[in-house]
Amino acid sequence: xxxxxxxxxxxxxxxxxxxxxxxxxxxxxxxxxxxxxxxxxxxxxxxxxxxxxxxxxxxxxxxxxxxxxxxxxxxxxxxxxxxxxxxxxxxxxxxxxxxxx
Length: 101
Description:
Keywords: Membrane, Transmembrane, Transmembrane helix. The protein has helices at residues 2-24, 32-55, 63-77, 82-100.
């Protein structure tokens, strides 16, 4: 019984902070600069998640991951389809690994 109460308590504690913004955000009028800043957070978070992976693709030669990430960034910059970006980065890293190792 005690374990069930702990689990229910943890569920409530994590659910409430996720639910409150749904009701509050519609009533707020944010300044333009804050709205712009909030829209850029997903890109910053994605970069923080991807960049360490780029450097650790091949631990003995991190330049392989950097080149693969550069190819992906270049294709994405020119608005290439997401599948093309992913496949080009994978293919670049694969070819460089076969060529250098």
